[in-house]
Write a structure and sequence with these properties.
about 450 residues; alpha/beta; Immunoglobulin-like; 5-stranded antiparallel β-sheet
């Protein structure tokens, strides 16, 4: 964490404020979130863990969500894939039940990825799952209904980047080899995008938010103010986040970080904190967004739990991706790991859910989280019996091991607290010490 105080810190804060004011995509200037939106932000902060679902016709090719771009597929070639998409084993109830078993409080699902294909029944395009596939079911409707039934929040991912639409022009750095005409009306594309967003916000009931991606691929005027205002007018409680890799903008309600937040020191983190935005880190179980048949480099449940805890220590939620197979099933390796996380959260979830980043900034040994007068010290990488902590905001009146409730010895001095850690159990991912602070 950047230290406050001194001329350098003042200059840094001034530069940050100037960047926020003069950013070329000023978005919804003067935006004041509604009371419902502010309450939704607190709900999101408390939720801490979500399940990401990247699923589309690209799963048929079993080569990640980016296959259209990486394989340089022409539009006529890629369009044949839609006719092969018939996931007869798709079970929305099983997906949502897995999220619940994993301890996830919300799901974020791709309604349209960069290939432009809509996984819902769009009235402004036939490039969608109902009109172009033998499956002919509105995936988003089924999933939205099931999320409501099982009490899971639903975020709708929408790619602003579109490799299929003829009016996404001029091209960005990706999707340049699809054979589209070298021309187009970007304003007309934005009208189309807003029309699809309106469909999503008026046809599927209340949603937790819109999760944008792809703005990073193209410069110019995205008319964000108009789009963001429409979203907030239609659903004031819906949270807007954008995975645009730049400064966070007025009108955005959450700050998204792709594979980069825990332990980092960067300008985007400063931007999110300056705007007091809830934060989220997204990550994959292996190396792929979407199902890739030969990607066997799966992280262990222990490693994923560490990443979840590290995100919480930075006061961020953790969004973990599962890319269902073309059959509609989630592959066994992902199911195993999600259930492993769920077992850990069932026992230790109170050190994550509803917490905020703790009073001690992330250290090589781990992180802290806090709820009220309880500080959770997450010892992730430390083998010595003594652990020295810096001074806390208030005196410590008790310390206990979360695993079994036993007392942990400590010595408190003016400059900090030293914990006497009990022996670490074999295979213990996170040794948690709960500090009770004086009122």
């Amino acid at each position: 964490m950047r230290k406050a105080g001194g001329a350098a810190a003042c200059a840094g804060r001034a530069a940050l404020a100037l960047a926020l004011i003069t950013s070329p995509a000023r978005a919804q200037a003067g935006y004041q979130p509604s009371a419902a939106n502010l309450a939704a932000r607190e709900w999101f902060r408390d939720a801490r863990f979500g399940m990401f679902i990247h699923w589309g016709i690209y799963s048929v090719l079993q080569d990640d969500a980016w296959v259209m771009n990486t394989r340089r597929l022409l539009l006529p070639e890629y369009e044949t894939v839609a006719a092969q998409f018939d996931p007869t084993r798709f079970d929305a109830a099983a997906w949502v039940a897995l999220a619940r078993a994993a301890g996830a409080r919300y799901i974020t699902v791709t309604t349209k990825h960069h290939d432009g294909f809509a996984m819902f029944d769009s009235r402004v395009s036939d490039w969608d799952v109902v009109d172009r596939t033998p499956f002919r079911r509105d995936v988003i409707r089924v999933l939205a209904d099931e999320c409501r039934r099982q009490g899971i929040g639903l975020f709708l991912y929408y790619s602003q980047l579109d490799w299929h639409h003829p009016d996404f022009y001029p091209r960005g750095g990706t999707g340049r080899n699809t054979g589209r005409p070298e021309g187009g009306d970007f304003g007309r594309y934005l009208d189309f995008m807003d029309a699809q967003l309106r469909e999503l916000l008026t046809s599927y009931g209340p949603v937790a938010g819109i999760w944008f991606d792809g703005q990073w691929d193209r410069g110019g005027d995205w008319r964000l103010a108009r789009t963001y205002r429409m979203i907030h007018d239609l659903q004031p409680a819906a949270l807007i986040g954008s995975n645009h890799n730049g400064w966070f903008q007025p009108g955005e309600d959450i700050a998204l970080f792709e594979r980069m937040l825990p332990g980092t020191q960067n300008a985007r983190l400063d931007s999110a904190r300056a705007l007091r935005l809830p934060m989220e880190m997204s990550e994959t179980i292996n190396g792929s967004w979407g199902f890739r048949l030969w990607d066997r480099d799966h992280k262990s449940a222990s490693q994923l739990i560490r990443e979840l805890v590290e995100a919480a220590g930075q006061d961020a939620s953790f969004l973990l991706d599962v890319g269902p197979m073309p059959t509609g099933e989630i592959q066994p390796e992902f199911v195993e790991r999600m259930r492993g996380i769920g077992r850990w959260l069932e026992r230790y979830g109170q050190s994550v859910y509803g917490t905020r980043g703790g009073p001690i900034a992330p250290r090589p040994w781990g992180v802290t989280t806090q709820r009220g007068e309880r500080v959770f010290v997450h010892v992730l990488s430390w083998q010595d019996p003594l652990l020295a902590l810096p001074a806390l905001p208030r005196r410590v009146r008790a310390a206990t091991a979360m695993a079994d409730g036993s007392r942990v010895a400590f010595q408190e001095m003016s400059d900090g607290v030293t914990l006497v850690l009990p022996p670490r159990a074999a295979g213990e991912v996170d040794q948690i010490v709960v500090l009770e602070l004086t009122p």
